Amino acid sequence: MDPRCTVITEALGAEGLRWFRAPGRVNLIGDHTDYQDGFVLPLAVDSDCVVAARARDDGRVTVRSLELPGVVDVAADGSDDPVAVEPSWGRYVAGVVRALVEARRAPLGIDAVLSSTVPAGSGLSSSAALEMAVALALGGSALTASDLALACQHAEHLATGVRCGVMDQLVSVLGQAGHALLIDCRTLLAEPIPLPDTYAVLVVHSGMPRTLAESAYAERRATVDAIAVRLGVPTLRDASLDQVRDDPLARHVVTENQRVLEFADALHAGDTARLGALLLASHASLRNDFEVSTPELDLAVDLLVEHGAIGARLTGAGFGGCVVALTDRAHVRDIAAKTLARYRAETGLDAAAFVVRAVDGAGPLTTPKGA
Ligand code: GLA
Q1: How far apart are CA 25 and CA 171, in angstroms?
Q2: Is 168 a catalytic residue?
Q3: How far is the CA of 321 from the centre of ligand 1 (A)?
């Protein structure tokens, strides 16, 4: 049994608990495209947030975490303003409570304890995993998967004030074991694409937390929204390369959409060389056109490729956090070890590398024994 479940059962008592889990994600390709109705290609990963909840009848939602300090205690009717909630991680909980009420779910009081193995602040969507797990504990599974993802995306907006896209929440609920998802962020439809076992997906954390990510993200988003208005298109999904050729931010969005579709084709075709070239082109575009990379992320990408990765790129919002690499599975340990050693020698930073597995999306957790 997952040791987290033992600890949670001890904390809450076994009686009447309902259990759920929701995974984090890594995005193989397609960053800063989701909020322009574009294409993304993430996978749900084998780090997750688990939650156990018991109903209570006094209209309160209380949540504790095995990792984070404090007790979250908010009204189940969504009347607490998420941004004012303390401890600060409770803002995501309060955001979910309010978003579900706005989605016309009946308020549900619960006592819950959660525990997450998704590293915070790394670009692997720890907040989406938490939102999704809490949403399920609050009865969110009555919504369709896409409505649930939209509610959790709204929760993130309420909690942080940052208008993120829907990728993280969608893949957290729709993920499929052994597959990446080609998601059309306009239709919210996802096509699972098998990830051959001969490849490994390696994530390297640069050892630098994401800094200024929220303000820089908001600023990028506002700028590309304004470009779409100026071009007279609903979103940059509808812009042609000719229309954006001289505008680096918009050019990134348009070319990145194209790369995602080509990457999906190359995965189907098993065209390893093309996959690598597309990953590197995506990183170059995020670095040069969208300007969300850092010297550390650039170095990690270079070292991974130098030591034999098929390709690598920063993943998620950028400004620190993680890079993702595709490697031959047979060589992944060697590539990771050599990359980390050189990275430490050149930066003095301790990076961390881990191989992720594509897992199923969020849902009920088989009730742990004794619970
Ligand atoms: C963050 C956001 C996502 C997406 C990525 C960049 O993870 O939450 O919606 O915009 O950045 O691709």
Answers
A1: 7
A2: yes
A3: 13
Q: How many whole angstroms from 218 Cα to the centroid of ligand 1?
A: 11
User: Which pLDDT does position 12 carry in this prediction?
Assistant: 87
Residue-wise pLDDT for 329-357, tens only, equals: 999 999 999 999 999 999 999 999 999 99
Q: Which helix (H) or strand (E) holds 144?
A: none
In contact, 167 and 42? CB cutoff 8 Å: yes
Instruction: Return the percentage of the chain with pLDDT > 70, whole number.
Output: 98
Q: Could you tell me which residues come within 8 angstroms of residue 288 by beta carbon, excluding any fewer than 6 positions away?
A: 248
Cα 301 off chain centre by: 20
- Beta strands at 60-65 and 179-184: parallel, antiparallel or unpaired: unpaired
pLDDT at 370 over 70: no
CB of 104 closer than 8 Å to CB of 86:
no
Amino acid identity of residue 289, one-letter, is: D
Dihedral sign for Cα atoms in the order 167, 170, 20, 109: positive
Distances (CA, A) of 335 to 34, 186, 229, 307: 31, 37, 45, 5
What residue type is 108 in one-letter code?
L
Task: Please compute the mean of the pLDDT values over residues 226-252 and round it to a whole number.
Answer: 98
Amino acid at residue number 328: D
Nearest CA to ligand 1 atom 3: 165
Ligand 1: distance of its center to the CA of 55 in Å?
Answer: 33
**What's the sign of the alpha-carbon dihedral 247, 249, 253, 259?**
positive
Cβ-based neighbours of 278, under 8 Å, separated by 6 or more: 29, 259, 262, 263, 266, 311
State both tokens at 317: 């919002």
Ligand 1 atom index nearest CA of 156: 8
Alpha-carbon distance of 155 to 86, in angstroms, equals 16
> What pairs with residue 323 in β-bridges?
204, 314
The shares of helix, strand and coil residues in the chain, as percent rounded to the nearest 5, are 45, 25, 35
Whole-model pTM: value is 0.96
Q: Which of 350, 309, 362 is nearest to 332 (CA)?
A: 309
Binned at pLDDT 50, 70 and 90, residue 363 comes out as very high
